[in-house]
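User: Structure please.
Assistant: Input sequence and predicted structure:
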Amino acid sequence: MASIGTEAGGMPQPTGLQQNVIMLQRRAQKLLDDTTPYSTYRWVFTGVALLIFMARVLTVHKWYIVTYALGIYLLNLFLAFLQPKFDPALEALENEEDKEGPGLPTRADDEFRPFIRRLPEFKFWFAATRAILISIFCSLFEMFDIPVFWPILLVYFLVLFSITMKRQIRHMVKYKYVPWNFGKKKYAGGAAPKDSR
């Protein structure tokens, strides 16, 4: 006979609160799954949320440290979005026999390997949107308004951004990869070629 609160197999049965949490998690996941194909609308929503946060910071002249933390986090996400999953710089250090997984071709005689991002677009969007919404939430409370001299934070962020982007662009040029689709040749899919016998 099973005891109260357990199923016949001995596994604990979720309580009412746990069932509600599971149901909310499933609904949130369903909503995220439904928005996956609409990347333009997702990014427009994120841009509007960022504009709302920036307008709030600029009009009230508070929460500069939250803005700085958000900027550093978004820069970190952007760099992970630009980088390949399998870094050719690290692969050059390893032995050719010990390679695991696909990478980018570094020589003309290498085989073509597609660009796989370290951080996929959907995860980049989700993390950025979540960070912006958390920043908006933090701007509702005075305890997150730590007094700082904002011009120093701005200059430091701009210097950090320029150094990291310069290094990333050098890496892209050195290993000859482009992490976006603009300007790339597109091939039209069609019927299989006819047999010419």
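The CA atoms of residues 27 and 33 lie 10 Å apart.
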